[in-house]
Amino acid sequence: MAAQDMIAPGFSDPVFQSQAAFRALLAALSEPGTLQRVAADITPPAGLTTATATALLALADYETPVWLPQTLRDGAAAAWLRFHCGVALVDEPAKAAFAVLDGAAGEPKLSAFNLGSDQFPDRSTTVIVQCAALDDGAGFTLSGPGILGSRSIAPQGLRPGLTEELRDNSALYPLGVDVVLTHGDGLIGLPRSTQIGDAR
After folding, report:
1. What top-level class would CATH report for the domain 13-199?
2. Which of 56, 67, 74, 134 could be cross-linked to 96 through a Cys-Cys bond (beta carbons 3.0 to 4.6 Å apart)?
3. DSSP 141-162
4. How distant is the alpha carbon of residue 65 from its chain centre?
5. Contact at 8 Å (CB) between 42 and 57?
6. For the chain, which residues make up each domain, given as ranges?
7. Backbone φ, ψ for residue 179 (5° rounding)
8. What secondary structure does DSSP assign to 173-198, as a single string?
9. What predicted TM-score, i.e. pTM, was given to this entire model?
10. Between β-strands 36-37 and 66-67, what pairing exists: parallel, antiparallel or unpaired?
11. Per-residue pLDDT tens for 140-190?
């Protein structure tokens, strides 16, 4: 196997590192808009941030289909996820339990993913949106459960209209997708219960 085809290692201590990653994700989604860091010492495959790769290592398995953009499906990320998580990759966004989006890409829209059902709202897709940065971008405000008053975030590299998509998504609550913004080892949770306000 050529060096460039070798699959990078995953967790060195799967139990401890999975628990730490899960705690970071839980904190991000229970306190929307707060910056959390993953502590896992891994080298992610090309195309995935450390936070994205760590989250999928902790959450994804053979029972949780994953949607990736074509650029990642054709590269090292797909092979890495299949090897370490045993995931099935799906072509249709609505069939995914987890999805990874380039924040600047125009498609697919958040509404293309599984929004859950009245009987099973928890079966919606968790969408990981990879950003150019998690600060110093065009800011907007958040309110709702887990936020005292309001909180502002300013991610960079989001496509035009994504803030409106997030606003439409929250209007579907208790349906809708949960969103996690990532860059480097940082992540910010935007659960479907979070209300999206005007830009700062």
Report:
1. alpha beta
2. 67
3. EEESTT-SS-EEE--BSPPTTH
4. 14
5. yes
6. 13-199
7. -120, 140
8. TTSS-EEEEEETTEEEEE-TTPEEEE
9. 0.94
10. unpaired
11. 999 999 999 999 999 999 999 999 999 999 999 999 999 999 999 999 999
